[in-house]
Amino acid sequence: MNKIPRMRGLNMGGWLSQIDAIQEKDPEKFPGIDAHMETFIAASDFANVSKWGFDHVRVPVDSYLFFDDNENPLASRFAGLDRAVGLASQHNLKLTLDLHECPGHDFADSTRSPVQKLFSDDETYIKKAEKIWAHLAERYGEKEHVIFEALNEPVAPTAEIWNRVRDRLCRAIRGHARKSTLIAGSNMWNWPATFGELMPFDDDNIIYSVHFYEPLLFTHQFAPWLDEPETKIARGYPSDYGSGFTRMYGLVMSAGAWDRGRIVREFEPVNAFRKKYDAPIICNEFGVYTPVELQAQLRWYDDLLSVLKEMDIGFSYWNYKNLDFGIISVGEKLHESLPQYGNPERINNPVLDVLRKY
Asked: Is 307 part of a structural domain of the chain?
């Protein structure tokens, strides 16, 4: 496999994806979808990412914002995605185009739906996803700085089903973008433990992705989108979280003692995959809910990022702006008084500094 350099970057979630979450936080000031796309991220934001020493942005895209129900592209919306691709190039950044949601798959809804339609026996939704990728890859396949990420956080009933769907999506991309780098993650929200069942795609220009938010009882404590009572308790790090808690599919999370050594053990399946297949890896989502006690956050970031660097795993931090994890927070009433944003630029410098360190 060709050696792909370790990547370091930031997500730009909430720009061309998850716009409903942005609207919910301040509905009175929300300017509408199209105006939001035009104003939420500017050239100065790409300049920040470059100035801070990172090499890429990951831009999540929700397909329903860019395609109609028959997967025909919405020309006016693609002007925004074209702009993102152009701004990344102007600032010497790579851009990962992440299919964050697509017909038949919504990572956020997967905890409430027994089987996402993309992974059912009905071919309708995989064909829709293939058509979407064919258009995206044809449009941007000649852009050397654009990387294509097949699907964000797949939640398939089995790893075998995900491996098969992953192959089809990657082939759809390869049909129009023969030289572009691909990214594909493991099953069950790209969780580290599922790397043991991940099969490599037959391609020399692919990066494999993992996401990491554990222990969730620490990183997401009091996050309003979680309902479990165990998440409504203040917790530090490092610490012992007892029996943890159980989410859908019987997935037990956060149980036991957590420190740097535990993070190393959690990443052992990922590191084993990396070594066995000489495969580049990127942890392209991780973060701590912003209101969590800052010094505990910084200990967690330092532990995780040092492990990633030690294992030669790249990273994309979640998130550049807003969505409760932002390096920059603007217009988020819930976070207005947090001390880390107490500067004119509203930049969370303590978290930014630890990211730049690695």
From this structure: yes
3-class DSSP state of 209: strand
d(CA 259, CA 264): 9
H-type alpha helices, 215-348 = 216-219, 260-266, 268-277, 294-310
Give the residue numbers spanning the domain of 217: 8-357
In the prediction, which pLDDT does 249 show?
75
In a domain, 1, yes or no: no
Please give the pLDDT value at position 26.
84
Q: Are 332 and 352 in contact (CB under 8 A)?
A: no
Asked if residues 281 and 207 have their Cβ atoms less than 8 Å apart, the reply is yes
Question: Cα angle at 122 between 111 and 61, to 5 degrees?
Answer: 55
Task: From 345, 348, 273, select the one nearest 311 (Cα to Cα).
Answer: 273
Residue 115: pLDDT band (50, 70, 90) is low
Q: Give the contacts of 224 (CB within 8 A, at least 6 positions apart).
A: none
pLDDT in tens, 297-347: 999 999 999 999 999 999 999 999 999 999 999 999 899 999 999 999 999
Helix axes 349-357, 294-310, angle to 10 degrees: 20
What pLDDT was estimated at residue 48? 98
Q: Is 23 part of a structural domain of the chain? A: yes
* Residue position matching structure tokens 């330092």: 302
Q: How many distinct structural domains can be found in the chain?
A: 1
